[in-house]
Every structure is written in C-alpha cells, then in structure tokens.
Design a protein that fits this description.
It contains four helices and two strands, in the order H-H-E-E-H-H. A two-stranded antiparallel sheet has the order 1-2. It has a domain of 81 residues. Helices cover 55% and strands 4% of the residues. The longest helix is centred in the middle third of the chain and has 24 residues. It has 140 residues and is mainly alpha-helical.
C-alpha cells in the first residue's frame, strides 16, 4: 500500500479498474508527477489507466484461449484480443510519454519541472531568480 503524500489528493479510480490497477492508480496520484496534473489533464490519466486495464484483460483472455484463433474461412489468425493489445501499445506509450511516465519523458519534463519549482519558490520568497547568477556556470 502506498502512503499518500501530505496534501496528495487521490481521485476515485475508474470503476473498471481491478485491484492491481487501483494500486497503480494510487501510486501515480501519490507520486511527484501527479502534482503536475491539472483538471484538464485528468481525462488523459483516466484514459491511460482504462487502457492499461483493457490491455491486461485482453492479455488474460488470449493467454487462456491461445494467441491464435480460427478465421471465418478456417485459416489460422492472430487472436482478435492479441490484435487489440498490439493496437493499444502505441496509444499507451504515447500517453505515458505525454504524462512523463518514462525515464526519457521525465528527463525532458525535469527541466521544466525544476524551473517551475524554482519559480514558485522564488515567488513565495519574493526573490527574482532571473537576475541571480548560477554558481555552477559562473566563471572567474
């Protein structure tokens, strides 16, 4: 069980999520990344988790039924649910990248996130950081 960070709000998960995906939902909403999610972004997060659940459900089904099935003329073809998983993967990967759920996308967002935190901190202190020199880049 993930402990919620102080002040972290964990919205109700979509009703279609299994216990496993509800735990992943809680993990996401109690992570640092969730602080970047606005109300406008929530449908994308919900959609991502619904896709995760759909992928898991499809995988469970075709693992039981087999990776192939018989087509209408008796030919062997990929199971329709395996085909659905294949179609879901790029959609899931794009949403994960857009939401910063991969190391590469977090790195890209990290610069903006770090700058945003610094800006918010300086605003609360009444400090103009744009005029300050970064000691790491200052030369003699």
């Amino acid at each position: 069980m993930v402990e919620a960070k102080p002040g972290a709000v964990v919205p109700d998960p979509p009703p279609s999520l299994s216990v496993t995906w509800v735990e992943h939902w809680r993990t996401f909403w109690t992570s640092d990344l969730a602080a970047l999610v606005t109300d406008v972004d929530r449908p994308a997060v919900v959609r991502l988790f619904e896709y995760y659940q759909e992928r898991a459900d499809c995988q469970d089904a075709y693992r039981v039924e087999g990776m192939t099935s018989e087509g209408s003329t008796g030919q062997i073809r990929i199971h329709p649910l395996a085909d659905r998983v294949i179609k879901l993967e790029p959609v899931i990967c794009k949403l994960e990248a857009d939401l910063g759920l991969t190391p590469k996308s977090r790195m890209a967002l990290g610069i903006a996130v770090g700058e945003a935190h610094a800006s918010l901190e300086s605003m609360s202190l009444g400090v103009d950081i744009s005029s300050q020199v970064d000691p790491r880049t200052e030369t003699l």
